Amino acid sequence: MNIFSTRFSLAGIAESIDAQSRREHAEVVAWRRHMHRHPELSFKEVDTANFLERELAAIDGLEVSRPTPTSLLARLAGGRKGRTLAMRADIDALPLQDQKSCDYASGNPNVMHACGHDGHAAMLLGSARILAGLRSQVPGEVRFFFQHAEEQHPGGAQQMVDAGVIKGVDQVISAHVLSTLDTGSIAVLDGPALASSDRFVLRVRGRGGHAANPDRSIDPIMIGAQIVCNLQAVVSRNADPHEAVILSVTRFDGGTAFNVIPDTVELWGSVRCFNERVRELVPALVERIANGVAGAHGASCDLDYIRGYSPVVNDPAVAERMRAVVEQGIATAALQPIRPLPNSEDFSAFLKHAPGVYVFIGARSAAKGIVHPHHHPHFDFDEDALLHGVQLFANAPFHLNA
Question: Among 309, 324, 351, where does a domain finish?
């Protein structure tokens, strides 16, 4: 097949997907709203998984299974030779009270889809139906991952990897609606897209005493305050200035009375990096600085460093093909350059086994009053973005698997 017939074929596929996605948009919206009304927390997505399984089972040509109790894998064998592409959507919600006034607001107290995962699942479900209808023309195999527990470490992605869903996959993609990007804009970065997310607990042990006699104590509050300030040297004096490191102390806990110096204080913190090599350096730096400051004042400290999700790093070759998906397959959307985001998520677990890309889909609309950030009690997203997500996933196999 020469380049002209390839372009014609892709153009025809894109037109077919565009028409079908518009016909089914109302149902995709209905799926999203159903899940929004019935959100479930990480590792507890029982009803969500059952709902998705019923909808997937109604689509001819899909082989549906449960890799874990609350996740789903649907497999579609295409009618043409090609590679294997996995496409992933997360399905869990957050422990947050929905404060929106709309008919699809959460009906579960203190549980809310405040990050758009309901939309991701609806997008992927819509694309599965479209691709099943185009099965004879689909190259290779397409696997649809409906992943549980993205919001809670250790995360559902690693559990799905351990269950074997990624075996034989040549490429893997995912997408996330973005509340800071206007509807109609799509961002596909090369290299780092999201940061790692690690946590630490640092306990400073001094010697307590009366506040009137600080000279007779070893004040862990004063020492802890110095540690907080000195930890910023990890960023400013120990990391390559071209490599972003974010270190935030988020809790300082100690003391029980106005006139008592405590024995111990506890500091909590968060560390985010875009580079795995830099990430590996941080724990030793935190420990060295904390021990140095504490030791200088006769105190001691111990560090618990908890590894979280790794950075999400897009493969440039896959990213280039995904930009072609946007340019050639989504007539009403345009590529928008953005910087990597310091947020994190567990899609990185899949990327350790197959090259892939994480795409951002604009879902903000000031005209509709849809402006609240993710994880906000009034969060919502422009449902026109669902159309772009369905088209993105549905066009992807024709560009990535052929």
Answer: 309
